[in-house]
């Protein structure tokens, strides 16, 4: 959420790269999804993503920007722009060993980091009740620890 003008960044990159060079970005958007309906629409986990987007909007940085990067690259003059969206599991639910490991890392990231980052923003940026947030966070943690919840986030 630090970059406020992505089109300008893409233009600067384009203007400073030599012909044949490339510029690569990766980023996730906490737009939590499930292909099998195991993530209910009223999920506390989904609510955490909404809080992130509300905070980003409030400080003038859209949390949706990674979904616009391809357009920004093309508008800046880059050619043959390729966008690859990966489904990153949010806990170790997949059967595939590699995806299971990625899900374990993602779960650790949520459990150990995201809650604290969002808690601070929830209080300082949104000026909301920290007690409500802690209850919501506890519900979201319970949901994401459930191996029967097959959620993922786009990267």
Shape: globular
Number of individual domains: 1
The residue ranges in which pLDDT falls below 50 over 5 or more consecutive positions are none
Helix content: 40-55%
Count the DSSP helices. Answer: 5
Q: Which structural category do the helix and sheet elements fall into?
A: mainly alpha
- Beta strand %: 5-15%
Q: Mind summarizing the main beta sheet?
A: 3 strands, antiparallel
Termini gap: 15 Å
Write the layout of secondary structure elements.
Blueprint: H1 6-16, E1 33-34, H2 44-58, H3 69-76, E2 87-89, H4 97-124, H5 130-145, E3 151-154
How does this structure look, described?
The chain is mainly alpha-helical. It has one domain (6-154). It is built from five helices and three strands, in the order αβααβααβ. The longest helix has 28 residues, at 97-124. InterPro entries: SAM-dependent_MTases_sf. This is Tam domain-containing protein.
Quick overview:
By secondary structure, the chain is mainly α. The protein is built from 5 helices and 3 strands.
């Amino acid at each position: 959420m630090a970059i406020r003008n992505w089109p300008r960044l893409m233009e600067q990159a384009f203007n400073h790269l030599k012909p044949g060079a490339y510029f690569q970005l990766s980023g996730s958007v906490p737009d939590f999804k499930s292909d099998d309906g195991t993530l209910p629409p009223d999920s506390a986990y989904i609510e955490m993503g909404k809080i992130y987007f509300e905070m980003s909007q409030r400080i003038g940085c859209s949390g949706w920007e990674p979904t616009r990067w391809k357009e920004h690259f093309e508008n800046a003059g880059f050619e043959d722009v390729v966008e690859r969206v990966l489904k990153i599991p949010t806990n170790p639910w997949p059967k595939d060993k590699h995806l299971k490991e990625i899900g374990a890392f993602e779960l650790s990231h949520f459990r150990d980091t995201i809650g604290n980052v969002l808690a601070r923003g929830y209080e300082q940026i949104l000026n909301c009740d920290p007690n409500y947030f802690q209850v919501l966070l506890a519900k979201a943690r319970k949901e994401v620890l459930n191996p029967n919840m097959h959620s993922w986030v786009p990267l």
